[in-house]
Amino acid sequence: MQCPRCNNNSEVIETRSQSSFIIRRRRQCHVCHYRFTTYEKIASLNLSVKKRNGNLEKFSETKMTKGVKKAFTKRPIKKDEFEDLIEAIKDSLRLKKKKVISSRAIGKIIVDHLKHKDVVAYMRFASVYRGFGSLSAFEREIKNLKKEQHVKK
Ligand SMILES: [Zn+2]
After folding, report:
1. Which of 41, 59, 89, 94 has a CA that sits 20 to 30 A from residue 105's CA?
2. Number of domains in the chain
């Protein structure tokens, strides 16, 4: 990267990640030794979603956030906690390293995150995404969840 003072080349003298997707680099000019800082932000998700009917749609972070927010209606969650949760879900999506992902797979990722965060939000979201067809399916899910939490303790 060019030095903002003399336009000669600079080198990176220190790199550290500021958050999971922001990288901060200290740089120094080879010629005038001027030091400056740059920030790199990883671009937003470039992902296509395969819907249940087979249609492809561009992944919308806004839509995903809305869906998660809805699940948290009247649930106690702080703003930054919620933002961290959304970032964590996005990290999981990135880790899939896919260009096309099914809406079902996204739903599962979100459900897995919610499970550890808030049981009510989890159940709300899961009931929409998995489309529990009957009360017994819903009850089975609660039973499984209780079992899992028991194992963790
Ligand atoms: Zn310079």
Report:
1. 41
2. 2
Is-above-0.70 flag for pTM? no
Residues 69, 100 share a domain: yes
- Residue-by-residue DSSP string for 140-152: HHHHHHHHHHHHH
Question: What does the pLDDT average to over 123-135?
Answer: 69
Q: How far is the CA of 8 from the centre of ligand 1 (A)?
A: 5
Residues 72 and 113 both lie in one domain: yes
Rounded to the nearest whole angstrom, what is the distance from the C-alpha of residue 39 to the centroid of ligand 1?
Answer: 19
Q: Which domain holds residue 24?
A: 10-41
Q: Name the token pair of 54.
A: 């087979």
Q: From the CA of 38, how far away is ligand 1's center (Å)?
A: 15
Pairing between β-strand 48-50 and β-strand 100-102 as defined by DSSP bridges: parallel
